[in-house]
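Q: Could you fold this chain for me?
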Amino acid sequence: MTTDRRAFLRRTAAASAAAALPAFPFHAALAQATAPVRSEFKPQPGDWRTFDVTTRVDITKPQGATQVWLPLPAVESEWQRSLTSDFRSNGQARLADDGRYGVRMLHVRFDAGVAQPFVELTSRVSTRSRAVDWSSKSAPAEDAASLRFWTQPTQLLPTDGIVRRTALAATQGARTDVQKAQAIYNWVVNNTFRDPKVRGCGEGDIKTMLETGSLGGKCADLNALFVGLCRSVGLPARDVYGIRLAPSAFGYKELSGNPASLKGAQHCRAEVHLAGWGWVAMDPADVAKVMRLETPEWIKTTQHPVVAPVNQRLFGGWEGNWMAWNMGHDIELPQAKGPELGFFMYPTAETGGERLDSYAPDDFKYQITAREIKA
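A: Sure. Below is the predicted structure, expressed as structure tokens.
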């Protein structure tokens, strides 16, 4: 029997008054939409945009008992509102939490006799762009214990040894939080590069990157390096794991998502806490992506007119065509047979006790789409 639970997660005071999400017809015009001509990259806080984000998983070759774990948007902030989540499945589904970072997920179990296990999850979120106002310190002080939490090492983000030595060298002469964050941001932009051959978003193993001198990677590598270097010199910092939902309003194809098919649109960003400004958006990995892929030739300087505004404004801001799932590390999936995850922004599944490859959506058989809800 198909399980059909509507609005099992509602962040409203009166859940009974909230209507179920509408069906998810995808309009051809939206699927065929193209990004506008590239213009100056300058995201600013403004109107909210609301999206329904749907993940559909089909296990085409179940080998006995099967499990699926899907991330749910779990971020509430001045730039995202995580609203509702609904699902359909022929399995047994429940809400789960990692118990440490507030990572929320849908966990679905299928008995061995289920011939075609599937789950379809739709989450509604509202997002908007971010840009810090460097002319005004207006953020209230945050609890010291909470900030210390975001300086702790993780399995993939050690804060001693070569990580700390690298950060100390990069921040030599920097005195304020802003100066230290800028120095580390510049170091990552100037010393790393986007490597298109890396699978998925990368692994985020920053110690190995530094020890081997192999500083190519993708967002989960390069932004993790920023976060780890910040933590090692006492700056609270965190990765923010999510997915691009729509084209860039500024016409940057590499900073866009195709809402008709978001396979491969997963993207993690970063935040650093700066005294007086609070949590500030960062994304040196997207600078590297624009340098490597935005034009036919690899751009090698941040002074290039295509790169310069991106490099400037991703230190302190990002565009709101993106949804965050969580900020967690070292995620132990409930009842999983396979190893814990360094981070959780991909559908994950096991069948017959074997973990499927989340970086191979066609073999795994999952699809992610988005639909913008117009007022």
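A (continued): Residues 177-191 form the longest helix (15 residues).
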